[in-house]
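LysM domain-containing protein structure dump, as promised
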Amino acid sequence: MTAVHLIGTPRTEARRPRLHLTRRGRAVVGAIASLPLAAALVAFAIFGGSAAVATSSAQQADFSYVTVHSGESLWSIASGLSSSADTRDVIADIVNLNQLPTSEVQPGQRLAIPTKYEK
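structure tokens r here:
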């Protein structure tokens, strides 16, 4: 058996070529690197900011109650409240204040009426 050894020649390992990014590649890497920062900013904008502060004093109610009688509708109730306001606006405010799904009311139902429409 014969073995040949070269003496004096250094063994060179194959060098890995250095990674070269193009302009487009650098833009992609930069965009990917900035995604966590952008997500944090969006989360702060949605959930951060100032929180609502509850006060201990109760506000004065700006409405009164009316009980619906048999044969009455929201139109008849609203038209009997204020002559200066448009009846449609009064009905819309009553529906919003009472969170009614429709404009239908039932006899005996209590409705909150904004005080600005009272006589």
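The mean pLDDT is 82.
lmk if u need the other ones
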